[in-house]
Amino acid sequence: MEEQKNETTNTVSTNDTTPKVTGIGGVFFISDDPKETKEWYVKNLGIEMNEWGSCSFEYRNINKPEEIIPLQWLPFKKGSEHFAPSKKEFMINYTVQNIEELVKKLKENGVTIVDEIATYDFGKFIHIMDAEGNKIELWEPK
């Protein structure tokens, strides 16, 4: 009986709108030669590049199995301003839900917000800085 209670308590409701991270949407890193790096990954690990020059790994939302979410993988040229103001050579994109409320919470907590929420056909994005100076991209898929 106790196990069933724990299982029920740990189940995430599909109606949950708590502002939070729900997964990883991308991994981006600096490369001296992105073209050569991509070619190495294609040749040696079988990674396939998409029409935008990145790789899309797809996974399903465990709480909504019909929902497919892409995880983007992409090397950037050394010197790219895409990671600024961070001095680090990587950036992680986290998928989130309720991005507007999450941004409010982050501001209340004194988190550095790099830009404003941008809306595209595939979702909403914003960039923040963590306590170590890493730029983080938050993405609420459409």
Keywords:
3 helices, 142 residues, single chain
Order of helices and strands: HEHEEEHEEEE
Tally of contiguous helical segments: 3
General shape: flat
User: What's the alpha carbon Rg, rounded to whole Å?
Assistant: 18 Å
Number of distinct beta strands: 8
Relative helix content = 10-25%
Sheet having the most strands: 8 strands, mixed
Stretches where pLDDT is under 50 for at least 5 consecutive residues are 1-12
Quaternary structure state of the chains depicted: single chain
Mean pLDDT: 88
**First-last Cα distance:** 39 Å
Walk me through the structure:
The protein has 142 residues and is α+β, with helices and mostly antiparallel strands. The protein has helices at residues 2-10, 34-45, 99-108, and strands at residues 20-31, 55-61, 64-77, 90-97, 112-113, 118-120, 123-129, 135-141. Strands 1, 2, 3, 4, 5, 6, 7 and 8 form an 8-stranded mixed β-sheet that branches. Strand 6 and strand 7 form a beta hairpin. The N and C termini lie far apart (39 Å). Residues 1-12 have low confidence and may be disordered.
In brief:
The chain has 142 residues and is of the alpha+beta class.
Give the topology.
Elements: H1 2-10, E1 20-31, H2 34-45, E2 55-61, E3 64-77, E4 90-97, H3 99-108, E5 112-113, E6 118-120, E7 123-129, E8 135-141
Parallel strand pairs: 1-3, 4-8
Antiparallel strand pairs: 1-4, 2-3, 5-7, 6-7, 7-8
